[in-house]
């Protein structure tokens, strides 16, 4: 459900863009994201920090896009968000008892501390790469291509990453279990 909520504004942006243009879509996005954030808070009584940061960036960079009539500001939003998340994940390697990825996954996976740190660094690399790819697409391709990439490309990259991560997790946990059984 959370994935749907995270991608709902992108779907609405996509529809608004192909209905009119980037400025109309930006305006719609700037209206929709705070509404979804408030509705989510009313229902769950929790504030999703990443969604809140994304909303703040949309309001800031969307305003610059509309005021200056330059969509490059909005093009930078996914990169700024991904790189900020990468920086937070990297910082969690050194601050706090557990890296962010371990806090997110909780008891869903049983890994050794060094494996959690490695997985956390893999997430850091993922966020940096996705931010870089976004800039590459924004500066190398047409606006409609960037809009399509924002929806389909980023979603596809995220799914591919999750699948690769799941395979890595399963393999690592199986190896840990094999080593544990051999040592007993």
Total E-strand runs: 0
Mean pLDDT over the full residue set: 92
What integer value in Å does the Rg equal? Answer: 19 Å
Query: Which sheet architecture does the biggest sheet show?
Result: none
**Percent range for helical residues?**
over 70%
Structural class: mainly alpha
The H-and-E topology, N to C, reads as: HHHHHHH
Distance between the termini: 41 Å
Assign an overall shape. Answer: elongated
Put simply, the count of helices is: 7
Strand content: under 5%
Total domains, how many?
Answer: 2
Task: List unreliable stretches of 5+ residues.
Answer: none
In terms of topology, how is this protein built?
Layout: H1 2-19, H2 22-44, H3 49-68, H4 72-92, H5 100-105, H6 113-140, H7 143-183
Helix pairs in contact: 1-2, 1-7, 2-3, 3-4, 4-6, 6-7
Characterization of this structure:
There is one protein chain. The protein is mainly alpha-helical and 184 residues long. The protein folds into two domains: 1-69; 71-184, no CATH class. 85% of the residues lie in helices and 0% in strands. The protein is built from seven helices and no strands. The chain has helices spanning 2-19, 22-44, 49-68, 72-92, 100-105, 113-140, 143-183. The protein starts with a helix and ends with a helix.
């Amino acid at each position: 459900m959370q994935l749907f909520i995270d991608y709902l504004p992108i779907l609405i942006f996509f529809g608004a863009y192909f209905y009119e243009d980037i400025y109309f879509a930006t305006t719609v996005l700037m209206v929709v994201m705070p509404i979804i954030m408030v509705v989510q808070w009313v229902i769950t009584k929790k504030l999703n920090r990443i969604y809140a940061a994304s909303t703040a960036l949309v309001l800031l960079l969307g305003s610059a896009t509309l005021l200056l009539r330059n969509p490059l500001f909005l093009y930078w939003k996914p990169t700024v968000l991904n790189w900020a998340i990468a920086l937070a994940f990297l910082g969690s390697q050194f601050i706090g008892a557990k890296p962010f990825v371990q806090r997110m996954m909780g008891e869903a996976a049983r890994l050794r501390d060094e494996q959690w740190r490695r997985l956390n660094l893999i997430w850091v690399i993922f966020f940096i790469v996705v931010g870089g790819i976004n800039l590459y697409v924004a500066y190398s391709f047409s606006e409609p291509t960037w809009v399509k990439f924002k929806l389909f490309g980023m979603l596809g990259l995220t799914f591919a990453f999750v699948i690769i991560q799941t395979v890595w997790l399963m393999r690592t946990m199986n190896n840990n279990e094999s080593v544990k059984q051999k040592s007993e």
